[in-house]
Amino acid sequence: MVRRLSSLNFFELMAANELIIEEWNGSSSTKLFKTATITASPSLCIRSSFLEVKQLGNYLCLCKLQGFPSSVTPDYLPFQVWDSLQGLSTYIRTMLSTKALLSAIGVGEKSATVIGATFQWFLRDLTGMLGGVLFTFYQGSDLDSNAKMWRLVADLMNDLGMLMDLLSPLFPSAFLFVVCLGSLSRSFTGVASGATRAALTQHFALQNNAADISAKEGSQETMATMIGMALGMLLAHITMGNSLAIWFCFLFLTVFHMYANYKAVNCLALTSLNFERSSILLQHFMKTSQVLSPVQVSSMEHVLPTWTTRWISRNSKLLHMQVDLGLRVSSLGRQELMELLHSSGSHCEEVKYLLVERKGIISVIVHKDAIATDVLQSYIHALVMANLTDGNKSTHSESQAWMDKQYEVFVQKLKSSGWKTERLLAPSLIWTANWMSKPSDKKID
């Protein structure tokens, strides 16, 4: 039987004892904070507890992201800080470039016609749309596997597009060409930025909360946009009529924008395996029998296209540059086919791939029924073979012996270090093959 406390007994209890009720903020998956204390003895006293500055900053910055920080990866917060700063500089520069573009079209001039400005704007947008379609067709499958590189390249192309808009008034005779070139550059940005953001959101989400993270990132971007637009309008007003000041501000903000982007992508410690990360991990494992952590690998991988930093790493052996995944069988010559069949031997029925060595490049022929783990195994095997290659020496037997002994150990250590070994992030395989062995029709006398 439940005993109810009457109002009289309640006040008698308050007179005899001091009743304290505390108010706490947070959920079971987040850190709790005491926000108020209510004391009743005998008068009512309410005392509010202010959140610490750090927690309040996190609250405002993350827009009440549920479960933070346990619901996201550790690199989420530093990435968002640098990403917001680069976004802020972008929106400030947008006001300067848009002002220059509108003046070049003829806004404010009596001689300008509405139909002429509309036609020019239409051609600008049409060029951007066509550029986005073509870029998706040629590079769409590579965006997920090289998210850090394409994230940086996307913002570089956006800077180039803004520069074209700012230059457009200086070349009236080539105005349409310059503007379309800028629109084409920005179209690459839209495709690459959207695709890489989706890949990074999946990386950040630790509790299947990708939708929540995406929504909060949208709120942060909106806030940065509003602040950037306000500062951009103020800067456009201050620098009005002063070309030197406009160019100085634009170039300064562009340099800062690229620096912030570089810092943002360097903060990322992705746990998925792509060509370069697999190469770095395997080389270190073959030397030390140890597996590097995602944070260690992030400081070693390239965030710029490999050809731009090749002069820096001439002495380093980039194994992934020596492997070609998804070779077309009909491209092989007769002698290469004979060597392939001879080197495969009895293993062709056991695995879903074949390896071919051609002028120092290890090519992988993937079986049409290969699954994601087979593709990963084939690529690791090719990396092992490339690492063991020494001149014209055949390394098929040595690489196969290493795979038989060390591959499962390598994969287990990858998993224990936090790496995702379910698949290899790689462009879609266009060419696959099928092979089988048939009994010989020759009769034995």
TrEMBL record:
Per UniProt, residues of the Protein root UVB sensitive/RUS domain are 66-288
Spell out the GO cellular component terms annotated for this protein, sorted alphabetically and separated by semicolons.
membrane
Give a single Pfam family match.
UVB_sens_prot
Q: Where are the transmembrane segments?
A: 160-184, 244-262
List the keywords (alphabetical). Answer: Membrane, Transmembrane, Transmembrane helix
Ranges for domain Root UVB sensitive protein C-terminal: 290-435
What are the subcellular locations of this protein? Membrane
Similarity comment: Belongs to the RUS1 family.
Name of the featured protein: Protein root UVB sensitive 3
Q: Which organism is it from?
A: Acer yangbiense
Q: What is the lineage of its organism?
A: Eukaryota, Viridiplantae, Streptophyta, Embryophyta, Tracheophyta
